[in-house]
Amino acid sequence: MEKVALQFAHTSSDPVAGGTPRAQTPPEARYDPRLCNEDLAPLREQNWSAYNIFAFWMSDVHSVGGYITAGSLFALGLSSWQVLVSLLVGIAIVQFFCNLVAKPSQVTGTPYPVICRSAFGVLGANVPAVIRGLIAVAWYGIQTYLASGALLVLALHFFPEWAAYADVAQHGLAGLSTLGWAAFMLMWVLQALVFWHGMEAIRRFIDWAGPAVYLVMVLLCAWLVWKAGWSRIDMQLGGHRVEGWDALPVMLSAIALVVSYFSGPMLNFGDFSRYGRDFASVRRGNFWGLPVNFLFFSLLTVLTSAATLPVFGELITDPVHTVARIDSSTAVVLGALTFITATVGINIVANFVSPAFDFSNVAPQRISWRTGGMIAAVGSVFLTPWNLYNNPEVIHYTLDILGAFIGPLFGVLIADYYLVRRQHVQVDALYSMSPQGPYWYRGGYNPRALWALVPSALVPMFCVLVPALHAAASYAWFLGMGLGFGVYLLLCRGRQA
């Protein structure tokens, strides 16, 4: 069946991916226009190598948000080795689930919202698409704000007289200073320019951005270690300490936090795995880009954070703040540009591409891939994202809420593809409104998938919002995913979904 699916996948083109020659009959002419445009159609050519997938994860990991999230684990009372173990276990779980969600899109050549049609119905797929798209809007704003912090550091380093305009109490609007707004909107425009040039430009950007960021981070870490002296670096960091068996539940919470952080790009990873030349290349890229790459990233994060204590007299987990403390214009410029590049990388691949496909799926003839991405970019401004990621407690709260919504969508999709459909997908039927089609239900919505979402999202949300249940809040993604998976299978018992 996979060979049949691949045959279908190669009957169309992806103009966004860079000028692939068209078949004589383009897919948008063969498929129902209410379900297809040239961006949502199955790919004609799938040519991403394992390196391209590896570079995707490098860009996804090396953002300011990634460093801050990893650094925030110290606030839980964990020592450096406990943080390192939590990061590695968490990323191993992410790799496992990414391989699961990658296969259906790679085999069929279709993006995330289209493959969701097999589980939710040809119109019902708009439900997970819109939810994922709205989450991407929030993340897009958060990452843009974090990257704008590097621009702010750069501006104040060379123009310290602007400090008053960086003070929200003196000159600010909606919780952000005037200079902060200027930096935020400049980052907003820069990212939009890269996105507007299409998927091929994005691929080229992430191919070099990840290694370049690594080079600078290694130099920053080496400078801090040299400045501090190896003997002065104490790997036992943080304020309060959790010891012995008491550390286990805290580490489990930290592991869950890592999975929640990557839950967004993990859910719509099919938007990228569809470009993989084969599933083996995707798996190799995931291996090098997740556990191997993340191991090096984790060591850099832990060592860099530990070295800030003897060098600056305080623990600094935000790399932008670390660079700002260095008394060198060259270092500040290089560091700021590096973190801007890193965050632009993750923002485009995780939070621009996803809503581009998701919103386009809602009305293919009215919303193109580019229009969908710009909807997300504009919407992110109105969320005031700087209020969602301004301290460790708020970071964890934000991730828990997002995980409560993303987990159920993941569980239903995986249960449908692997256990209900047995990995059989009729690609042409994904673009058909025919009542005889396998993915058509009354009104176009699969009621079993939608009913499975209700308890699967409500239970983890209660855990996040109800103080008495807050101990389970860190596991919101796991709860939602498990419930979505189990409830959907229960509703589909004994029949085709």
Structural features, described:
This protein has 497 residues and is mainly α. It has one domain: Orthogonal Bundle (Hydantoin permease), CATH 1.10.4160. The protein has 20 helices and 2 strands. It has a two-stranded antiparallel ribbon.
Which descriptors apply to this entry?
497 residues, mainly alpha, Hydantoin permease, 20 helices
Radius of gyration: 23 Å
Strand content: under 5%
Number of separate strands: 2
Average pLDDT, all residues: 80
User: Which CATH class?
Assistant: Mainly Alpha
Q: What class would the helix/strand composition place it in?
A: mainly alpha
Task: Please estimate the helix content.
Answer: 55-70%
The CATH architecture category equals Orthogonal Bundle
Sheet with most strands: strand arrangement: 1-2
The general outline is globular
Query: In this structure, how is the largest beta sheet organized?
Result: 2 strands, antiparallel
Look at the structure and name the CATH superfamily.
Answer: Hydantoin permease
What is the third-level CATH name, the topology? Hydantoin permease
N- to C-terminal distance = 18 Å
List the secondary-structure elements in sequence, H or E: HHHHHHHHEEHHHHHHHHHHHH
How many domain regions? 1
